[in-house]
Amino acid sequence: MKKIEAIIRPEKFDIIKDALTEQGYGGMSVSEMKGHGNQKGVSEVWRGKRYRVDLLPKIKLEIVVSDDAVDKVVQTIINESQTGSIGDGKIFVYEIANVYRIRTGEQGDAAI
Amino acid sequence: MESLFSKYSSKLKWLNVVYFITCVLGLVYFGSKIVFAGDPSGTVDYGADGSIERLGYSINFTWTLVAAFLVFSMQAGFAMLGGFLQAKNMLGYMAHCFADGTIGAVVFWILGFALMFGGSGSAPGLESGNLFIGYSGFFLASGSYDVQTIMLWLFQMVFCTKAVTIIAGSVAERMKFAPYLIYSFIVCGIIYPIYGHWMWGGGWLSTLPFGAGCVDFAGSAVVHTIGGMLALVGAYVLGPRKNKYNPDGTSNAIPGHNLTLVVVGTLILAFGWFGFNAGSTLGATDLRISVVATNTFLAAAAGATGVIFMSYIIFGFTDIGLACNGALAGLVAITAPCAYVAPWAAIAIGVIAGAVMWGTVIFVETKLKIDDPLGAVAVHGANGIWGMIALGIFADGTYGGVSGLITGSGGQLLAQFIGVVAAIAWAIGMGALMFYVLKVTIGLRVSELIEYEGVDVHLHGSPCYPAQAELTSQLGSVVEEEVTQREMAILEESLARDASREKIYSEKLGRWIYAKLKKEK
């Protein structure tokens, strides 16, 4: 089992969520976050004075899938969210030791 | 056209300064030439000091001015209704409300008041005008520089700015700022005053030979029907927000961001409405004010109560957002008949107003397919009409000689009907002309990118709820080029790529989704 952690543009979240749900990977944890990599901030105006917002809003998606589905999910996320410019985000893939479903006590692939 | 404007925008900015200075100099020059014919100190025409006559004037002035201040507080209520919108567009909506309240006042001072009350003879300096338009009292100068005229101006000015603000709700989240200012200018300066003249300034509606002529006590037609119908036209010409409608015509809910603001805003509006209606007697020596104020509140309470119970029966929830609109619907409907009906009739008018509001929300959204984020058409347009008709039905003849259908005379109802038809025709006709001309010249709608990211950051430079100070830094500390322009081009390209996606119905999800076109092999 692998955990896929994708940091994406907020405006792409809806279509990624729809595309993943459509393919049957609807379970996900989502958090709003702020950060920046190579993409620098944007400038805004506060009562006539320009200032810079360093950290941009991003959305972090966490999905745990079985090993054979990793490629498909990662490809889906890349396909849907790629704009080809700085700020598109990153995807991290982690090993998962085990998964338990609290409601039933199932574990392993059955619990995903 | 748009590119032409942006190309010369820096030049236009300087021209603005030149125009402004020219205007101010012109004003000072002509202002110094004016001969004062009114009574600007209030010491000549309004009774001897200490006389009973003067005391009567003094009470009426106090009442009307306090009422005007109350009506002004409604601007805060209108701004707070922005809680129905998404957080990214809140500042844009409040900017519209704020511009209406300030620019509208200046325009009303320049020409609106003169077109509206010239010829009414209701105060000194307002002598010339005909049945269709007034033409005295420009700039509150010469004869109209008089305490009573200026009191009337203040009270009418706040009404005028309320009427314009109604439209802000229906065009919210997607309208450019510049055409909004032009629209605000035209409505405050021409559309609202001319209809107001017909009704309140001694125009043809008030002298109709049916009943007591067309009557509108505090502005169901003058303020709310005109505002609501302009809102309808504006929202229609602008088109719905992105994602509001699916390709098969069904509509999606776009939730707002703060119901606290909505509830508080509604309560502030209801408070201001006491001034709106009870102040319209223009004097506290008219003791009917207690009935007016009570009717006003009863209708609001009845409107909200009706919606609270109905929404519980229909949804199983009590929808407070809708109940707030129900209260406002009751207030709008009672605005015309508040002085002429008994309290029981106010309750009936309020309950029906809640139902009319609800029905119109559904009708506008599903049948007309017009996107009206704040329900301006349902609350103000439809209930302005209902209020005028209700006057013709429920007026009991105890005040002002106005008798409706329940006393057995149908003439008043006919007069009210003519007034309403005139309001609808005038507002829709002039509104359509204005909005279409604006659309083809400077454009009404923001670009898709701005709509996506919210008008706040793009048109006003800052989100309504900015980032924490810890997450920002001053521009001085970084190289400017490296930083900062929003990556407009990149995002626009990406959105354009998204636009090639098709909206398809997903059986699996049971709703509409955006999907990439399948690649042909």
Q: Tell me the number of structural domains of chain B.
A: 1
Question: What is the 3D shape of chain A?
Answer: elongated
Please give the CATH class of chain A.
Alpha Beta
What pair of chains forms the biggest interface? A-B, 29 and 34 residues
* Regions with little confidence, pLDDT below 50 for 5+ residues of chain B: 1-8
Write down the secondary-structure element order of chain B.
HHHHHHHHHHHHHHHEHHEE
Number of domains of chain A: 1
Compute the average pLDDT of chain B: 87
CATH topology of chain B: Ammonium transporter fold
Query: Averaged pLDDT of chain A, please?
Result: 85
DSSP strand tally of chain A:
6
Number of strands of chain B: 3
> Could you give the order of strands across the largest sheet of chain B?
2-3
CATH architecture designation of chain A: 2-Layer Sandwich
Named CATH architecture of chain B: Orthogonal Bundle
Between the first and last Cα atoms of chain B, what is the distance in angstroms? 41 Å
**Major sheet strand order of chain A:** 2-5-1-6
SSE order of chain A, as H and E? Answer: EHEEEEHE
Assign a percent range to the helix content of chain A.
Answer: 10-25%
Report on this structure.
- The complex is a heterodimer of chains A (112) and B (521).
- Chain A has a single domain (2-111), classed as Alpha-Beta Plaits, CATH 3.30.70.120.
- Chain A has two helices and six strands.
- Chain A has helices at 13-22, 70-81, and strands at 2-8, 29-35, 42-46, 49-53, 56-65, 89-95.
- In chain A, a hairpin with a 2-residue loop joins strand 3 and strand 4.
- In chain A, helix 1 runs antiparallel to helix 2.
- Chain B has one domain: Ammonium transporter AmtB like domains (Ammonium transporter fold), CATH 1.10.3430.10.
- In chain B, helix 6 (177-200) runs antiparallel to helix 7 (220-238) and helix 7 (220-238) packs antiparallel against helix 12.
- Chain B is mainly alpha-helical and 521 residues long.
- Classes of the chains: A alpha+beta (112), B mainly alpha (521).
- At the A-B interface, helix 1, strand 3 and strand 4 of A face strand 1, helix 17 and strand 3 of B.
- Strand 4 of chain A pairs antiparallel with strand 1 of chain B, so a sheet runs across the interface.
